[in-house]
Amino acid sequence: MNPLEELLRRVPALLMARRNLSRNRIRSGLAILGIIIGVLAIASLGMFGTTLRTGADQQLGDIGNEISISPNLQEGVEELTDRDVDEIRRAVSDGSVVPIRSDSVLVSRGDQQTVTTIYGMENPGAIYEASDGRVPDRLRQGALVGSGTAELLDIEPGNTIAVDGRTYRVSAVLAEQQGISLVNPNSAVVLPMEDVNGTGYSQVVVSAESGQAANESAVSIREELNEREERVTVFELQSITSGIDQFFGILNTFLIGIGSISLVVAGVSILNVMLMSTIERRQEIGVLRAVGVQRGDIIRMILAEAGLLGTAGGVVGALVALGAGVALNSFVLNDPMATFQPINFFYVVLAVGFGIGTSILSGLYPAWKAANERPVEALRN
Amino acid sequence: MSHIIELQNVWKRYETGGEVVEALKDVDFHTDPGEFVSVMGPSGSGKSTMLNVLGLLDTPTEGTVLLDDRDVTDLSDREMTARRKEFIGFIFQSFHLIPTLSALENVEVPTLFGDDPAARERATTLLERVGLGDRLDHRPDQLSGGQKQRVAIARALINEPRILLADEPTGNLDQETGRSVLDLFDEIRREDDVAIVAVTHDPQLSDYTDRTVELVDGRIQ
Ligand SMILES: Nc1ncnc2c1ncn2[C@@H]1O[C@H](COP(=O)(O)OP(=O)(O)OP(=O)(O)O)[C@@H](O)[C@H]1O
Ligand SMILES: [Mg+2]
């Protein structure tokens, strides 16, 4: 005897249920199809949401890891001092601190010239990458040119430019920053700190390892520097990214809600199928009751039928949904394996659970109705 | 007392749309192990109603039902079901086999929901005894009327009942097949000491029965 038959013999409700379902294959098949569609809708809409969020995260990059500290002009603080920077360094446990001094000056190459922002930075490598040339860890000499300025003045690494009358060799053209950025270098020139006029700093950028680390740094910086007076304002891009995350959370719930509606429809179709099949089998159920089968066993038998419909629909629906997820992710993200992440398995399990739950719930009324029919009534011809 | 089942002053009334139908009127009835009783009477005289009360499928409006000397009139549905399983085998006029199950599985049905590992063996033996040893895996639609009736008889016997209740057991069979079913009944009550109560219009039954009860208009004559 094979294991399936062995199981069916052990659980007579399952045996009877399976036989009953095979009686009208088309009807059972259609009921299963309803569940497949419902499960597919929930699981694939959930995964669709994940894909959207992953795509958006890729676009945003890791700006959530950066915070910006600027002097609080309303309190009369014009610029940040070396003491402030030291305090910030102490408050930040892991991550690089980049003080920035800025000014606006005339930049020229050959006979072309333009007024741009210049940033003085000691360690621009912590926040910028080069598209051409190399960004040194410590900037002691030479200039880094933003992509916009480079294009305007036709600059390449190795060229010589004049900034505010002094000449610099260009060591790199910076990669164009897309989207949101705390210190946008695109139409600026970055110079060594001491070459920019002034003693204080207009801004300090902290680049941390993760959004959470950035947030922790922001909290301790506020504690340290704003203890006596509101000396600085701390701006976290994380507040934007967490807002975006929240939006996608709502979007996902909404999508899954839409999917659930189709599952409710599938539940109604199972209710219909089970009701019809119990009415058709009224006499048979009467015979079962007459020969000594208890009410509870009748209920179990009919719930097993509904459960089998739900399980079959759930399993097929889950497989189809995973297939759809792979297709979607290879198309949108170019990464089919992005389907197999924990959150997506959660959606699939959720959908299958909903599918089986809906089926069993829909079987309750027909089961109760069949079990409570008096066998004398059912057997009357 | 050795009566296996007994009805004392049983009344059964049906109320339909304000009108009261008295299907059984003060019926006293009993049967002993190994006895074969036929119940006869015109249509609508209450024969099926009496059989249902005897089989614990229906409860009397008034009166008492004793099964194996115990009062079973007011038992719960659960207990009634358990007593039916233990004491009573049913044979229906239209067989009422389950179409999706094989002959063997149909015979096993009364044992299915319960732990009974020997059931399959008993079912096989019973089917061999009713002459269907070579039809174990046939489904009802692959069997003739007489064969179906014999599967139904085997099903009624699977739990070794003390009483066999049959409503028109030969009603759907030709005379010869009917006779072979009646021979089987005769063998069962002799060998297994089972009491048989059969409702019938079939006069050839009287060749087999110990006595005949005549119901007219709900009263035993
Ligand atoms: N559920 C019911 N509701 C109302 N009246 C009923 C019900 N069941 C039976 N009766 C009535 O009780 C009477 C006896 O019915 P019963 O079925 O016992 O007759 P019977 O002797 O078996 O008849 P037949 O030989 O035609 O099968 C009939 O008048 C019938 O109309
Ligand atoms: Mg009748």
Topology of this protein?
The complex is a heterodimer of chains A (381) and B (221).
Chain A: H1 3-10, H2 12-23, H3 25-60, E1 66-71, H4 82-91, E2 96-109, E3 112-120, E4 130-133, E5 143-145, H5 147-153, E6 160-163, E7 166-174, E8 188-191, E9 203-207, H6 211-225, E10 232-236, H7 238-280, H8 282-290, H9 295-332, H10 342-372, H11 375-379
Helix pairs in contact in A: 1-2, 2-9, 3-7, 3-9, 3-10, 4-6, 7-10, 9-10
Chain B: E1 5-16, E2 19-31, E3 36-40, H1 47-54, E4 62-67, E5 70-71, H2 77-87, E6 88-91, H3 103-112, H4 119-129, H5 145-157, E7 163-167, H6 175-192, E8 195-199, E9 211-216, E10 219-220
Parallel strand pairs in B: 3-8, 3-9, 6-7, 7-8
Antiparallel strand pairs in B: 1-2, 1-4, 4-5, 9-10
Helix pairs in contact in B: 3-4, 3-5, 4-5
The structure holds adenosine-5'-triphosphate (ATP) and magnesium ion.
Structure description:
Chain B: Keywords: ATP-binding, Nucleotide-binding, Transport. Chain B: Pfam families: ABC_tran. Chain B: This is ABC transporter ATP-binding protein. The complex is a heterodimer of chains A (381) and B (221). Chain A folds into 2 domains: 194 residues, no CATH class; 173 residues, no CATH class. Chain A has 11 helices and 10 strands. The longest helix of chain A is centred in the C-terminal third of the chain and has 43 residues. The longest helix of chain B has 18 residues. A 6-stranded mixed sheet of chain B has the order 6-7-8-3-9-10. In chain B, helix 3 crosses helix 4 and helix 3 packs parallel to helix 5. Chain B is built from 6 helices and 10 strands, in the order βββαββαβαααβαβββ. Chains A and B meet through helix 2, helix 8 and helix 11 of A and helix 2 and helix 3 of B. The site of adenosine-5'-triphosphate (ATP) has 12 residues of chain B, from strand 1, strand 2 and helix 1.
